[in-house]
Amino acid sequence: MPEPTGGDASRSVPGDTHAERDRTGRAGQPGNNPAGERPVGAEPSGQFAVDDTIDLASVETLTKAQAQAELHRLAQAIDAADTAYHADDAPVITDAEYDALKQRNAAIEARFPELKRPDSPSDRIGAPPAEGFGKIRHARRMLSLANAFEPEELAEFDTRIRRYLGLPVDQPLRYTAEPKIDGLSLSLRYENGTLAHAATRGDGETGEDVTANARTIADIPQQLADAPALLEVRGEVYMRHADFQALNARAAETGARVFANPRNAAAGSLRQLDPEITRSRPLAFFAYGWGALSDPLAATQMQALERLRAFGFTVNPLTRCCEGPDAMLAHYRHIETLRPDLGYDIDGVVYKIDDLALQERLGFRSTTPRWALAHKFPAELAWTVLEGIDIQVGRTGALSPVARLRPINVGGVMVSNATLHNEDYIAGRDSRGEPIRDGRDIRIGDRVQVYRAGDVIPKIADVDISARPADAQPFVFPETCPECGSPALREPGDSVRRCTGGLICPAQQVERLKHFVSRGAFDIEGLGTKQIEAFFADDQLPIRQPAEIFTLAERDAANLTKLKNRMGWGETSAANLFRAIDTRRTIPLNRFLFALGIRHVGENAAQLLARHFGSYSALHACLTGSAEAALAELVDINGIGPVMAQSLVDAFANPEERAAIDALAAHLSIQDAERPQAQDSPVAGKTLVFTGTLTRMTRAEAKARAEALGARVAGSVSAKTDLLVAGEGAGSKAAKAEALGVTVIDEDAWLALIGA
Q1: How far apart are alpha carbons 22 and 3 in whole angstroms?
Q2: What are the CA-CA distances from residue 678 to residues 205, 408, 711 (Å)?
Q3: CATH number of the domain located at residue range(s) 152-376 in this protein
Q4: What is the secondary structure of 557-612 as a DSSP string?
Q5: Can you say whether residue 680 is alpha, beta or left, with left for phi > 0 and alpha for psi between -120 and 50 degrees?
Q6: Residue 411: is its pLDDT beyond 80?
Q7: Which of 371, 332, 326, 379 is nearest to 353 (CA)?
Q8: What angle, 0 to 180 degrees and rounded to 10, lies between the N-to-C axes of helices 506-516 and 529-537?
Q9: Which of 254, 363, 587, 751 lies at a 20 to 30 A Cα distance from 315?
């Protein structure tokens, strides 16, 4: 069974599940780090806050329709945050905010499981590997961890596992608990005892080849004695506090850039194109798991870690076995008291089922193992003065308030900016008008509490009314767009005020263009954020609509002032840009749809639409025909709800929007979508429903098995259902299936069908 690291992956043997999203960005010396380095306290470029900021009010008051709409908005917000962080290297929200969005999404899915989207953010994995390194495909994916923030979530974790396995509450269940190292995930592949290669997590499937760099780390053995013929060891590269401070002191003396924190220093040092730079950096490595294996290491997690220790790896000495949630929490609190004196950064404690056979049974969700949990420490706090509030306009017209702070050191990083979410948050109320912070509003000049969890972009958590200046005035949120002057309206039920200027708003235009050329969309090499801003402002070779990207070379040829002679371009770089643009004239349908930047349509939704319609001509015919018929067809697609459907229809009904899309499509060859299906499976591509009580496996195990075989498991019976598996006590679903002519089989027939 595969095992997770700080990202997301599945494997055929359990083990590593540590590192999570490193939302602080990656750092390194100028000229050597392909991912780039941002100075300490520097503000990321591009949009500052997520377009669709989600109010974190309780889900208990949501109706089903509201929950469905909220899940759509959450998917869009989290998708935007992922793109900004992973693709643009410019985080727009903090880890704490990101975790809150994911928590709210999970809470709504738990209350309304039938509404879970196929493109749910709960099922998403990390980041693509950076340019400049070779690529290595992991034999077993590297997964991330589900998070816990409150003590009671440990008991819930234990209960979920027992329910899944069908274990009674009085049966002993042992866990391991170990510090969650705040560093960079690394996978080491040993063949016949020799280190063959090393790779970062990347997107969980493919990582960066950092073999030469890993060989320079003293904690990583080059040879293993008595190891399995194939062994992938996974762990965390980190930097000790003393080494980090010495490194920054040397950098300051020479005028080089300093690192924001030890995690950035470790990540930037490992991801160097020159291994000698990595060799000069004091990196360390903790092993905590494994990926592919030719032979099992042991029967339990703790025994396997001891075996890794015997091979010569450093295993964290604070790892303990715990008998149940109370012991787990006690060890968490013990580690928390030791945290200031450890000499390296941790941000929580990781719990794992100790019995590897049970790990095998529990398996994985799409991005996280069921048998592991990361219990996070509280975020860091500091107080400073709010010196101003700016309003930024995003791709979908959202007006996002940004706090300008008197710079303050929070956890080793100079913080000067923070998100303020939306106008309700500033006013001291939630989206329902209920008070937050006891109704205290936030004003310019206030002393504010800054909340940060290792992020570049923090948030304002609280305000000290007693320190408020006598002349401080309530902040008046603008009702017109600060960029184009159009009315900024707030629709009922929406926590965000939006500019109505659409394509006449320069801020929306430039943000949509940035999205268009982003990695998940057209991904045009040489045409990034800075270049888009320059072309947008240029009067001789402007790019203000996506179609104009594909006429750039033609317009340059007809222009007396050539691109190669201005705007920082040379003859070679201009030719390379035109060549890169030409390579994107052929584009898969799903990437084309995502690139359009239509509100609520993220990468996964674009994939669903592409697979349903198959071709752009079919989708275009649907969206340009009867609006009523288009809405009916769209909402019938599993995973496409009414909010997204209406957004698509509205986009193609808008004359300016439609003209821009048609002009773009005229320059492209849009490839039809592939519809892959699992091989050698009698249920591949079929829609299944399980009902009643299964006796030979739990419902959760049956569903996971069906999905692994290429089936789609639905929660209700419809005319599109291919097969109903009825256990003991099957009721209304079985009756409905028979009425619709759906094939109904019992559990024995189901197991025979799949060869189990």
Answers
A1: 19
A2: 18, 53, 8
A3: 3.30.470.30
A4: HH-SS-GGGSTT--HHHHHHHHHHHHHTSEEEHHHHHHHTT-TT--HHHHHHHHHH
A5: left
A6: no
A7: 371
A8: 140
A9: 363
Quote the CA–CA distance of 352 and 17 in Å, as a whole number.
Answer: 8
Question: Which one-letter DSSP state was computed for residue 435?
Answer: B
CA distances from 351 to 168, 238, 325, 328, 482 (A): 20, 20, 10, 8, 48
> Can 180 be counted among the known catalytic residues?
yes
Architecture of domain 587-671: Orthogonal Bundle (1.10)
Q: Tell me which of 2.60.120.10, 2.40.50.140, 3.30.1490.110, 1.10.3470.10 is the CATH number of domain 380-467.
A: 2.40.50.140
Residues 315-351: tens digit of each pLDDT: 999 999 999 999 999 999 999 878 767 888 888 899 9
Residue with tokens 């409905």: 736
Specify the CATH number for 687-753; select among 3.40.50.10190, 3.40.1190.10, 3.30.870.10, 3.30.565.10. Answer: 3.40.50.10190
Amino acid at 297: L
Both tokens of residue 572?
């070679």
Residue type, 696: R
Given this model, what pLDDT does residue 375 score? 95
Give alpha helix (H) positions in 258-381.
262-270, 275-279, 301-311, 325-338, 356-362
Q: What is the pLDDT of residues 361-396, one digit of tens each?
A: 998 876 789 999 999 887 677 788 999 999 999 888
**What does the pLDDT read at residue 396?**
87
Active-site residue, from 180, 352, 686, 703: 180
The half-sphere exposure of 6 on its side-chain side, counting CA atoms within 13 A, is 29
Put simply, whether the predicted model's pTM sits higher than 0.90 gets the answer no
- Nearest-CA neighbor of 367 among 149, 606, 201? 201
State which amino acid sits at residue 454.
Answer: G
Q: Where are the domains of the chain?
A: 152-376, 380-467, 505-544+551-584, 587-671, 687-753
Domains 505-544+551-584 and 587-671 share a fold: yes
Contact at 8 Å (CB) between 55 and 78? no
β-pairing, 712-713 with 230-238? unpaired
Task: Name the token pair of 639.
Answer: 């995973």
- For residue 367 the two structure tokens come to 């991005």
Per-residue confidence (pLDDT) for residue 241, from 0 to 100: 85
Confirm if 395 and 597 have CB atoms less than 8 A apart.
yes
Sign of CA dihedral 755, 712, 98, 442: negative
User: Is 193 in a helix, a strand, or coil?
Assistant: coil
Nearest alpha carbon to residue 724 among 685, 676, 677, 689: 689
Please list the residues that pair with 723 across neighbouring strands: 688, 743
**Alpha-carbon distances of 668 from 527, 580, 581, 598, 611, rounded to whole Å:** 18, 14, 11, 18, 19
In the block, residue with structure tokens 């042991």: 298
Stretch 261-288: mean pLDDT, rounded? 88
Q: Which fold does the domain 505-544+551-584 belong to in CATH?
A: DNA polymerase; domain 1 (1.10.150)
Q: Measuring CA to CA, which residue among 589, 629, 592 is closest to residue 612?
A: 589
Q: How confident is the model at residue 32 (pLDDT cuts 50, 70, 90)?
A: very low
DSSP 689-749: EEESB-SSS-HHHHHHHHHHTT-EE-SS--TT--EEEE-BT--HHHHHHHHHT-EEEEHHH
Q: Where are the alpha helices (DSSP H) in 318-406?
A: 325-338, 356-362
